[in-house]
Amino acid sequence: MKKALVFAALIFIATITMAQGVSPYSVRNIRFGLEFNSDIWLNTPAELELRDINRGANISLLYYHQFGESGFGISSGVVLATQNMYTKNAVLTINTEGVSEFSYILDTITHQKYKLNLNWAELPLEFSYKTKSHLTFALGAKAGYLISDKIKYRGNDFTSDATAEIKMKVFNNPNIMNYRLGTYAMIGYKWINLTAYYGLTNLFEDNLGPEMSPITVGILVRPY
To answer: Within a 13 Å sphere around the CA of 171, how many CA atoms are in the beta-carbon half?
Structure first.
């Protein structure tokens, strides 16, 4: 996520720099957003248990253009998103055929954390309508590129000695899709918005892992 934060800082600095040379009207149309969300994973393997809350977050920087006095508008920009999948009873492994799968941990092996973390840079395109009563309705789509991924595990050693405590990080895990596509909807009042995202691509490449995809629900804070 460090790369993502550096990228966000560069975009923010560039935006402020460019804003110094444009009109106050243009500056007012720059929209910064902060969203906290959770994933619901579809088509998970039958025995895989995930936490009820798979928390994530994203920050966005969009430019909004309104069509006259109609209330309709269009926005585009950049989004940096972090996504986490927390498993209760399994770890991600590669089988002898090079396919990613979830291997189940014995009940006798205790662990405090196991998660798959994904960080994305995304380009959104959003169509919105704002009412005079400060309600906002929006539909959009996003195309994302995978910046980084890692697995984090803390608990008893599930590979050999179940009594030994280990901490493990694995970066650049194979078979994970390096891009994602999705659509989203938003409804809000002034600065507070409820969001729902539907993933159109799977977590893993075709035939190289379970055909899982996310639905993400969240709360977005954004100037209206």
So the answer is: 4
pLDDT, tens digit, for every residue of 91-111? 999 999 999 999 888 777 777
**Above 50 in pLDDT, residue 19?**
no
- E strand spans, the chain: 30-42, 55-66, 72-86, 90-94, 100-104, 111-130, 135-156, 165-171, 179-189, 192-199, 213-221
Inform me whether the pLDDT recorded for 218 exceeds 70.
yes
- Among candidates 43, 41, 145, which has minimal Cα distance to 84? 41
Residues 6+ apart with CB under 8 A from 150: 116, 117, 169, 170, 171, 172, 173
The predicted model scores a pTM of 0.86
First vs last C-alpha separation in the chain: 28
On whether residue 173 sits in a domain, the answer given is no
Q: Which domain holds residue 84?
A: 2-88+115-152+179-221
Domain of residue 185, CATH code:
2.40.160
In a domain, 43, yes or no: yes
